[in-house]
Specification:
With 155 residues, the chain is of the alpha+beta class. It contains 1 helix and 11 strands. Strands 4, 5, 6, 8, 9 and 10 form a 6-stranded antiparallel beta sheet that branches. Strands 3-2-11 form a 3-stranded mixed beta sheet, with no helix packed on it. Strands 1-7 form a two-stranded antiparallel ribbon.
Length: 155
Amino acid sequence: IENATMIWLNNIYEKFDGREVRLAKASVSLYWRNPESEAYEVWPASAFTQENPQLTDPSGRYAFLVPEGTYVLQVEAAGYQTYRSVPFRVEEGRAVHQNIAMTPKEWWKQLPDWNTVLLIALTLLTLYNMFQNRRRRRLTTVDGSRNPPPSAGTG
């Protein structure tokens, strides 16, 4: 492409447990502002031997090589809210880089993973069991008979 500029938005990710988890197979669509109609339209990638939309690779990366103009990106991924960028200008010789954090649709996706939940549940059950065993031992005498707890007001 003559006078083209690279749009390389290599970080489509979800923020999870304080780290960035890259999203593979997110659909990235590029829209350009048609100078004749002033409306945003799907960028005609096939005219430039490219695809639009593109799917991100396992590292969350994708790239477009585009002529100068004003563009908008839209990213869609299963289980995430659709992301739509603000319009941005692409100028010859200036690469465009932008990290995009995707937001899960469901609130429970922000919870810890099932391994962590299982570990917490097992820890709580173990502590409960230890407490119950200690309580039973206090109520059992040496000969194995159970002593009733002292009644209030006897004495």
